[in-house]
Target: Putative oxidoreductase
Amino acid sequence: MTLVRNKQVILRNYVTTFPKDSDLYVTSTTASVKFKLPAHTIITTSKEPAVIVKNLYLSCDPYQRLFMEEIPGVDESTYSQRVYYTPGSPIYGYGVAEVLDSHHPDFKAGDLVWGTTNWEQYSLITTPKSLNKIQHTDTDVPLSYYAGILGATGLTAYVGFYEFCSPKKGENVFVSAAAGAVGQLVGQIAKLMGCYVVGSAGTKQKIDLLKSKFGFDDAFNYKEESDLDVALKRYFPEGIDIYFDNVGGKMLDAVFLNMSVHGRIAGCGMISQYNLDQPEGVTNLMHLVYKRIRFHGFTVRDHYHLHPKFLDFILPYIQSLI
Amino acid sequence: MTLVRNKQVILRNYVTTFPKDSDLYVTSTTASVKFKLPAHTIITTSKEPAVIVKNLYLSCDPYQRLFMEEIPGVDESTYSQRVYYTPGSPIYGYGVAEVLDSHHPDFKAGDLVWGTTNWEQYSLITTPKSLNKIQHTDTDVPLSYYAGILGATGLTAYVGFYEFCSPKKGENVFVSAAAGAVGQLVGQIAKLMGCYVVGSAGTKQKIDLLKSKFGFDDAFNYKEESDLDVALKRYFPEGIDIYFDNVGGKMLDAVFLNMSVHGRIAGCGMISQYNLDQPEGVTNLMHLVYKRIRFHGFTVRDHYHLHPKFLDFILPYIQSLI
Model:
């Protein structure tokens, strides 16, 4: 039986307000891992047979801040799997891994997977339903893309924008945190659909990227706007048909005022609120009724079944660039 | 040409905070109406030929408070028709009327209609698309029902609950302002669908009615609850699958904390906010994302085409009681 050191990123304690470097630490001395599962099947708490993986790529995403503290009213039943990080244990996130051993019928040694794994070199995965097999021989794209555009990040953008917001050519689309991993893809998918797309972000460098590289029609720095309602009216004089919300709070409140009749909002995340002691109050909800808006909160975890459809959509674009 | 006095309910001035008796007045001395349209077709600002009606029944509804003042960001384009009442002119609302004369091909003298009309005895209707013909010979129900359960009130309950919330047998349903015209019907339709239904209201008499007459499984007086979150957890220990929101504000905020995964919210109105100078801040929106909730704001005006389907659904129940 092979034993190796297993470098891990550990949460020291639950985090309040802004996370600090010292909230996490790396250990590589005490943990060890068996590359082979024992001969008998391990039936885990999720009632699935376990899988051992070697982690290859990890993605750092905003929701990870959320799970660094307990959230009232949210528990394991909310996501049908572990939610909060455990102080003293490695944090988890989306990544790409290679299966080393498996008791699960869907996976065998040598398989490549993307999905939820731990921030460590080797992981015992007790919820293999959170893993998705990569059919890598079908594509020529770098494997690391499955920790980004071809994995949860891309699927999040696709599901939230395409499946929930039903974009039509010529519609006006607004994306907040538009230079983030998901936001920049939403904008690019929106352009592929023939929409007019404006993004917001918080630095000049990000705004330049949105306009010069990611193909947004326009972009603005929300930190330079004294009145977000005025800013949105400047870019959307005819109203916003689709809003992809990554930030919540004051921006969402201003968007409500500027939505078009029968507009759609994808609720992906609300990062402006994660580090606050108390969330900000949002006051313009009545505009959801006035304008007959559909707000759809979602998590990509519910939509892994759409991944093949998403790949059919996105891979040709990526392969045409390689 | 016949001239008659036309009693009218007039808005004196735009209303702020709580409306007072003196905000409206009745006049019956100065106005007059011609029973016959002139021989040439009147093409109105809505580009529809006009109709003259005699109003028979009028419904008094919460949204009428909204339109007693101008709302920033809401105008005629929002509803494709007049929104705000005009000080010095009669207010409008849903009602039942008899057509006296018509240049519109869909209506002729003697037709009975339900829809938007003015609070006066006789009205020149310049937006006849807001009128719906009543096929009264098909039913034995009192004509006044088309100002309530068989008109906009019933259709609102049906569309919001049945069409937007897709109820399934056994689901847990919460209705606020449950003793109101729409709320009491939502609860009764939910019971017909086999749901568990709890309502909130603001007096003991209303709570008694909800439990003893309208068939709600339970009901509570929100004014007697110091903590709405605690109250909702008492009635929905397993969470709320469907919330029919008539009130907004603090109740909506508490509901967000208690929604079940993949729950649905019909945004019908937010009466708790209409008389406030500034709307209250709602802080728990992130639960729309955690629980992957669909919030659907709506107005019955968009869904008149569902009225025949609604009648097919509701009339047998009503006729069985007559």
